[in-house]
Amino acid sequence: MRIEFITWFFSIATLTIFFSITIPVHSQCLEDQKSLLLQLKSSLEFDPDSSVKLVNWTGTDDCCQWNGVTCNRFGRVIGLDLNTDSISGGLNDSSSLFGLKFLEKLDLANNSFNFAEIPSNKGTATLGVLNLRNNSLTGNIMGAFPEGCTLRTLELNGNKLEGEIPNSLANCANAEVLNFGANNINGNFPCFLVNLSELCILVLRSNKFHGNIGCPGIHNYLWPKLQIIDLALNNFNGILPPNFFLQRKAMMDGGNRQPNANHLRFDFSQNIYYQDSVTVVNKGNNGLYGAPLTPCCKEVEVTPPTMDGRQSYTNEDEINWIYITATLGYTVGFGVIVGPLLYSKRWRQCYYKPVDRVIVRILHHREQRSRNQRRRNNINQLRKCQHQ
């Protein structure tokens, strides 16, 4: 019984470890993905002394383990983060970047592309997050946004972009964060974005927008989830229409339904309006006028969404496969090997015979060594008695 228990214990432990180790938990980068990334590295102009990501991309490593690269479980690149990596140029329509057909997040913020224009290539139709802020980019905003655009976050703040916001941006129905701040963009208030029902943050600050605020003929369902709208430092004029903001669902006082909500606050000196978690910023040289929206209650600190856009957003490619495969290893090991040991007598006999022979042999050697040691001890004790 003791030998059988020891055999059983070692069997379970060995099989569990074997199946947990042998099932892969990391997907290696596909060769075509590695090739595209290495081509991208060679085409970009960057300072190797300041770079911490691109400079370490080498052909001998798994590209899914490179700094700044994120892959899905199939080894395809879905995320590229080259934020603040001393890039100074080399991005154009022919860039191998647009060969990454599964790319969902691209972060090139805080580099300097030396007054280059944003490439018009549509090869990144799967993008959900695009961050190009603080890059000295010039020209117009990207050409046309395709039908079925998947973009959720667009960060273009701190460049030198001109022209108007393209009407095709309305194709990005799931857009949540649109930041056009600190550019030279002109045009009227973007009423053509009226159908972006998921929009949480709209930043138009420090541009050349002009005309009235509001959308004639549109009274309801304009950006029901809006939390922040920044109109500062533009050339807007006319009356700031209170109902334009008060009719937004996210700006409404929920009464007993939202006991912790903060109602609207108007401050003449700052021109900041609060209602619940909504902030309307109207600092600077806008020629807007009008009465306060509603009486003051108390302030609320607004925390904008992360760069990933919707916080509840998940992607099946981002599941932690380490835990899943480890669990699968335990299950397969138990079901395939340990299960038959429990329910098949013939299997147990075939399996335990060689294992038992090994264990019996080990125990026999241990017992033999113990006997030899006791014999030597007895001989030594006898010799001591004879000398006495």
Automatic annotation (TrEMBL):
InterPro entries linked: Leu-rich_rpt, LRR_dom_sf, LRR_N_plant-typ, RLP23-like
A single GO cellular-component term on record: membrane
Extent of the signal sequence: 1-27
Transmembrane segments: 321-343
Entry keyword Methyltransferase: no
Localization: Membrane
Pfam families: LRR_1 (PF00560), LRRNT_2 (PF08263)
Organism field: Rhododendron simsii (Sims's rhododendron)
Membrane topology (UniProt): Single-pass type I membrane protein
UniProt keyword annotations, A-Z: Glycoprotein, Leucine-rich repeat, Membrane, Repeat, Signal, Transmembrane, Transmembrane helix
Record-linked Gene3D superfamilies: Ribonuclease Inhibitor
Protein name per the record: Leucine-rich repeat-containing N-terminal plant-type domain-containing protein
Protein's UniProt keywords contain Repeat: yes
Location of the Leucine-rich repeat-containing N-terminal plant-type domain: 31-72
PANTHER family: LEUCINE-RICH REPEAT RECEPTOR PROTEIN KINASE EMS1-LIKE-RELATED, RECEPTOR LIKE PROTEIN 30-LIKE
